[in-house]
Design brief:
five-stranded mixed β-sheet; 2 domains; alpha+beta; Four Helix Bundle (Hemerythrin (Met), subunit A); 286 residues
């Protein structure tokens, strides 16, 4: 039974925006055997943070549109791509576990290949056998996506931490009193992706301050009731919501750097700030 190692090297990756939302990892596969081969099929499992499974299946595709490049000569390399679908629920799990850090992908695989035989100048495929992508020291392959690059991927995917709330961003931005609030809220999301929990909360607070300033001309969260009544149009609803905004403002204020003694701000604090702020903006935007 033939055995060989197929070292794999990533040379690029690309995020496909909605509605597909897919991460495409372009790679180079080297044939270390003493004979030419052809990759027939591959079954790949992709895992990331704390064993979170991102994908499993026939997600590898060789990159060629002619027959000859499908053959990887001995000692040479061929091109391929791994396609990972990233639906909303998967992205949410990734972001909760990533907590502002890098993304490490761990790939395990079963690859079906055949030796390419030349008989009287005619090339035929030998009996298929199984191998895997990896390296000389491991049958698994790891690839690290730095935080800075992953943030670019998220933007390309048009991902929002508040997507499940169905935040009507376009409609909110069309409301002059909320335009700057959405900008501050987007700043908060950027801070969250970088792992800056305190700045996440501070930008959430700035979103409310912008809303109040652009509706009442005041810079004080104590004027929230006027802003809420202006946006909702119903004083009896604005009154209890004012208490919500006031108490949320006190919570967000805990992230100020001059607090003494300093209060540790955790990922779950920042995530709560995003969800509550996003929910209120979604409500006001409707």
């Amino acid at each position: 039974m033939k055995t060989l190692t197929l070292p794999i090297k990533v040379f690029d990756f690309y995020a496909e925006p909605p509605p597909r939302r897919q991460l495409k990892i372009a790679c180079e596969i080297t044939n270390t055997a003493s004979f030419d081969i052809c990759i027939l099929d591959a079954w790949i499992i992709v895992e990331t943070l704390n064993g979170l499974k991102l994908a499993e299946g026939k997600i590898f595709q060789t990159m060629h549109n002619r027959v000859d490049p499908a053959i990887i000569p001995s000692g040479k390399s061929g091109l391929g791509a791994i396609h990972i679908d990233l639906p909303v629920q998967v992205l949410q799990h990734i972001e909760e576990r990533r907590a502002g850090g890098d993304i490490k992908l761990l790939l395990s695989s079963r690859v079906l290949v055949s030796e390419v035989l030349a008989v009287d100048a005619v090339k035929t495929l030998g009996i298929p056998f199984e191998t895997g992508f990896g390296s000389a020291s491991s049958d698994r392959f790891e690839y690290l996506i730095p935080q800075s690059e992953w943030i670019k991927v998220l933007k390309r995917l048009a991902w929002s931490e508040l997507e499940l709330l169905e935040l009507p961003v376009a409609k909110i931005k069309g409301t002059p009193a909320l335009t700057r609030a959405v900008q501050r809220f987007e700043d908060a999301q950027d801070c969250y992706r970088r792992g800056d929990w305190a700045e996440t909360m501070m930008n959430c607070r700035k979103a409310f301050e912008a809303t109040i300033k652009d509706t009442t001309g005041e810079n004080d969260l104590k004027e929230a009731s006027k802003a809420l009544e202006f946006l909702i149009g119903e004083a009896r609803k604005a009154e209890p919501l004012n208490e919500v905004v006031k108490n949320l403002g006190d919570f967000l204020h805990l992230a100020r750097h001059e607090q003494f003694p300093p209060i540790p701000i955790k990922p779950e604090d920042a995530r709560l700030a995003l969800h509550l702020t996003g929910a209120l903006l979604a409500y006001l935007g409707r």
